Amino acid sequence: MTQTINLTIDGVAITVVEGTSVAAALARSPLPAARLSVSGQLRPPFCGMGVCQECRITIDGKRRLACQTPCRAGMRVERDAKFRSDQHD
Amino acid sequence: MNAPDVIVVGAGIVGAACAWRLTQRGLRVTLVDDGRPGATAAGMGHLVCMDDNPAELALTAWSLALWRDILPRLPDNCAWRDCGTLWLAQQPDELEEAERKRQRLADVQVASEPLCASALTAREPTLGAGLAGGLWVPGDGIVYAPNVARWFIEQAGERLTHITGEVIALEEPWLQLRDGRRLQAPAILLACASGANKLLAEQWLRIKKGQLAITDRYPARLSHQLVELGYAVSAHAPDGKSVAFNLQPRPTGQLLIGSSREYDNPDSRPDPVLLAAMLHRACDFLPWLADLNLIRCWSGFRSASPDGQPLLGPHPHRPGVWLALGHEGLGVTTAPGTAWLLADQITDNKPAIDAAPWLASRLNRQEVNA
């Protein structure tokens, strides 16, 4: 039986299989991007191995790489406020 | 196509500024560049008044005065900010050096303000505890140098022809490019850093590798370029590797962290041990940096003359060859002064500052005296 855990992405609950990376959880969310570039472009995870730095995101209040961070129960994953207002307003 | 009046070799910020200024003086200029990134692409873009010796102080202060007319005209992508420099004193005796620095700057009408420990904290509240004080130089600033170089080239207009090519030989008045083209002009200005060694068959320039690291974007916590007052002491060790704290808040919310120095290592890969020493040094001043994410680090190569001062002006014994070389870490700051000085010399006008300290003929004298 596979364990599942619950976390939130921008306050929205999501359930994933234990061992899933935050990058994989983002890929299963409605908008798979991690952040916005300086010029406002959507930036999703790219290399998946901690090199390209495209998937940096705020996890439990600290800037992390989504692809190098395993999901944990109760984890809060947050994209920046501008991203959220652009997507949900 | 008619031959230009001047060919400038190297389109970094120094070569670009020279090309622009020469066109302003009515000359037709060809700017030739190999397209490979140099120090302009790698550096911090700090506009800073430096006072290690009277000639350097005269050149940087004059250049900053020239910058003040240019900066308001720059487009947004040049990222000019008038953040000033905060020079930081760790030890009480460094405050005496801060006072001497204030006096030297005042002698050339550059304003600065000594800060006691509490005044320093008031100006930059997140600095670590235990600093003795500092010196605030409000006239300094920052730019994004690669875009400033492009802007100089755009401003030059129709009098400038910008071509991509690698210069492989200098036989004045001719330049030979690798692709077979030959260019001719009565004046040839070399602004190609250590690449000039080969063209001149001299060993006037050494490379001085530096490293920088940049963080992710964070809400702004700093509002000044920060440099340790011990910078000159630790940065100018004669040989070997050294680090000194130098940090710049970028308009994006990123923090650009320097600096390191290492002579004669052409390997462009970052050195993790030296990088760690540089970051530890930064954390001495700003302990909260340890919680931030770095997203990139890279290296670049300053080019240094034997006495650490730039070579500006005519070649000592080759008429028609002009030099704008060896700016080390001050090429961005001194690009306008360099350009005005060379344009005056090439057009046979008297420069606004004394050109004698920068003449390359001093190198020959040193060799004789050695």
TrEMBL record, chain A:
Domain of life assignment: Bacteria
Domain 2Fe-2S ferredoxin-type: 3-83
Name of the protein described by the UniProt record: (2Fe-2S)-binding protein
Stretches that traverse the bilayer: none
Cross-referenced Pfam families: Fer2_4
High-level lineage: Bacteria, Pseudomonadati, Pseudomonadota, Gammaproteobacteria, Enterobacterales
UniProt cross-references to PROSITE patterns, sorted A to Z: 2FE2S_FER_2 (PS51085)
InterPro entries found in the cross-reference section: 2Fe-2S-bd_N, 2Fe-2S_ferredoxin-like_sf, 2Fe-2S_ferredoxin-type
From TrEMBL, chain B:
Superkingdom of this protein's organism: Bacteria
Positions of transmembrane segments: none
One Pfam family in the UniProt entry: DAO
Keyword Oxidoreductase appears in the UniProt entry: yes
Keywords from the named record: Oxidoreductase
Cellular component per GO, a single term: cytoplasm
FAD dependent oxidoreductase domain boundaries: 5-344
SUPFAM superfamilies referenced in this protein's UniProt entry, alphabetically: FAD-linked reductases, C-terminal domain, FAD/NAD(P)-binding domain
Molecular function GO labels: oxidoreductase activity
Protein name stated in the entry: FAD-binding oxidoreductase
Species of origin: Jejubacter calystegiae
Lineage: Bacteria, Pseudomonadati, Pseudomonadota, Gammaproteobacteria, Enterobacterales
